[in-house]
Design brief:
alpha/beta; about 625 residues
């Protein structure tokens, strides 16, 4: 008699495992791999996988796929007509000895508490698996990440359009009621963007949640969501009998590693590693964990977190390793670029972390990255950002690099003019740079007027009202459009003082900015007006402000220009002492005899005097630049 597909699937789930088929199998990630008997010459390209709630096979070379009934039909009873071959295959599977002594008539849904939830989630995964085969957009997304639809099916990756009605109709055919869908997939109707779906399983192999990832990161602030509320502390891709799990951050980091055959790679799903994650890994046999992280902008904060992970691991009796990847790289990219063997070797060669060795391993990684960065910059290219109107300065200091630079002048008002000129030059000369100008001394509108005036070479008074000369009005219009273009393209922001604006809020906001835009430069014009809400142990206000700026710089590691007042005497600059001591360089602008002289002095960056030059100032716009030296 004809056995329908669903009945055959239940037989397989209840009684059959690929190891019972009598063919040579090897473990490959969380899957099994064998030689494919369906094409010649045979290759080790046939995967057995349990992504949809029961075992299936797929050859990544010839494309053969199906469930275990179909595998037996093709491999053992290929000469029979389909109906007879299916009946023989089902009879063959029915005679196999069960792999375990558990009750074989129970489906995993019944064995697991909340079995109805597993049934609903597996149905959702199967539906999305089918939809992915029909969706060009999901195929394009996966292809851009180096995945084929066939590879994605090994892990149950699918596609959900955002419309629940087709899935509801699909469930009705399987006897699943709508109220069950709403109860177990409680976030299904909350998000309507098309997403790639990713099933997450517990250590028993049962689906506990299904995650969704947007196809276009710009479409939604929620890149990853869970369609089913559930435990968020189960490591993604967790497997039993895993003594040395590798802990990565992203879904595709774990999936690509598993596809490459690296055993025991789990993901924290972009959450911070917690004690609960480690408890679950230890329950699955973990004796040693290795955390592989992407390099973050704030290296100090990342190192503190690793030290916390080390302490948690030691408390649980787990050996611990940590690896920070080179800047901009992910586990996914490393494996695709260099292969699985290089990552495996890196893990093996990495020394086990202890309280005593952790600092050394971090230092070694930093030294290597520092060398790689230096050797990656050609000798004729500036390390930092260029200033086209200050070419000699750019050459002498090798561009504007990460550092804390104090800017002052005599007379004092020229300080803001210099900062505005540098700000405009940086934005115009460096297309990938973003600049934040924090005006603590003047209203933001005055900064607008000053920049527009500098762009067109007219006075600030001219740009504040309509001119009788229509050509001037046209230039003001074009310069204003340019200024708006910098803002629209997220390359320029101008902040002014607010009642709640203090150093803590500034640090928090700038940390988020650096995450989104690594090429960031900050100018604080008027450091003497910055509100400071900590460092109460320092009585001198200049010491407090200099300390918080130093904290900002160490946390962000970006170029920061700080404008404020310095006291000048015949012996040179004498104070406030805190800014002179803590700055990487002092930019001092002085007007003498109708000429302006800029010097850049440092006690940290090589020679004491890094640069000395003469500047010119536009008589109308007050824009500054280096004087052109004639032959």
């Amino acid at each position: 008699m004809l056995i329908d597909q669903e009945h055959a699937g239940i037989i397989m789930r209840a009684k059959t495992h690929p190891r019972q088929l009598g063919i040579p199998l090897s473990r490959w990630g969380r899957n099994l791999i064998a030689c494919c008997p369906f094409h010649s010459p045979e290759e080790t390209s046939l995967f057995f996988y349990d992504a949809l709630g029961y075992w299936r096979y797929r050859c990544l070379q010839c494309g053969s796929e199906g469930d275990l009934v179909e595998f037996v039909m093709r491999s053992r009873f290929n000469g029979l007509e389909e109906q007879a071959a299916r009946a023989e295959a089902v009879d063959f599977l029915g005679t196999l000895e069960p792999e375990h002594d558990n009750k074989q008539d129970e489906h995993p849904w019944i064995k697991e508490i909340g079995g109805e939830k597993s049934k609903v989630l597996e149905s959702f995964v199967r539906y999305c698996h089918w939809a992915a085969c029909k969706s060009p957009s999901s195929a394009d997304f996966l292809s851009a990440r180096g995945w084929s639809i066939g590879q994605a099916q090994l892990y149950g990756l699918g596609y959900y359009s955002g419309d629940p009605e087709p899935f509801v109709s699909y469930c009705m055919l399987s006897g699943i009621e709508r109220h069950e869908i709403s109860f177990y997939l409680d976030n299904l109707e909350a998000y309507h963007e098309p997403r790639i779906t990713i099933p997450a399983r517990n250590s028993k192999g049962l689906i506990h949640s299904v995650y969704g990832r947007v196809l276009d990161d710009a479409d939604s602030p929620h890149r990853y969501i869970s369609y089913a509320s559930g435990p968020g502390d189960i490591p993604f891709n967790i497997q039993p009998d895993n003594s040395k799990p590798l802990i990565v951050e992203g879904f595709f980091d774990a999936l690509t590693a598993d596809l490459a055959g690296i055993p025991g790679v789990v993901s924290t799903m972009y959450q911070e590693l917690s004690l609960s994650h480690l408890y679950k890994l230890k329950a699955c046999g973990a004796e040693e964990v290795c955390v592989i992280l992407r390099r973050e902008q704030d290296r100090r904060e990342q190192e503190y977190r690793i030290q916390k992970y080390l302490k948690m691991s030691e408390d649980l009796g787990l050996k611990f390793k940590s690896i920070i990847l080179p800047k901009g790289e992910t586990v996914d990219q490393v494996i695709r670029k260099n292969g699985a063997d290089q990552l495996i070797s890196l893990v093996k060669e990495t020394e086990e972390d202890t309280v005593h060795t952790h600092r050394r391993s971090m230092l070694l990684q930093d030294i290597k990255e520092n060398f790689d960065t230096a050797m990656g910059c050609p000798p004729d290219v500036s390390v930092g950002y260029s200033l086209n109107t200050f070419p000699k300065l750019t050459h002498e200091i090798d561009g504007i690099q990460s550092g804390c630079f104090y800017v002052s002048s005599k007379p004092f008002g020229l300080k803001t003019t210099l900062l505005s000129s540098i700000a405009l030059d940086l934005v115009q000369s460096n297309p990938k740079l973003k600049l934040i100008y924090i005006a603590l001394e003047t209203p933001r509108r005055q900064i607008f007027d000053r920049l527009v005036a500098m762009l067109i070479g007219e006075s600030v008074l001219t740009v504040r009202k309509q001119s009788e000369d229509e050509s001037v009005n046209q230039k003001i219009l074009e310069a204003t459009r340019d200024l708006m273009g910098f803002v629209r393209s997220n390359r320029l922001e101008i902040w002014e003082d607010q009642p709640s604006f203090d150093n803590r809020e500034l640090l928090s906001t700038l940390k988020e900015e650096v995450k989104e835009h690594s090429n960031l430069v900050v100018i604080v014009d008027g450091i003497d007006h910055l509100k400071v809400s900590d460092h109460a142990d320092l009585s001198d206000i200049h010491e407090r402000r200099s300390s918080v700026i130093l904290d900002l710089y160490k946390a962000l590691d970006i170029p920061m220009f700080i404008g404020g007042e310095l006291v000048d005497s015949e012996q040179g600059l004498i104070g406030p002492r805190a800014y002179l001591r803590d700055s990487d360089a002092i930019y001092w602008l002085e007007s003498k005899g109708g000429n302006m002289f800029l010097s850049v002095d440092s006690k940290r960056l090589g020679n004491n005097q890094l640069y000395q030059g003469t500047l010119s100032i536009d008589p109308l716009s007050n824009r500054m630049q280096e004087e052109i030296e004639l032959g």
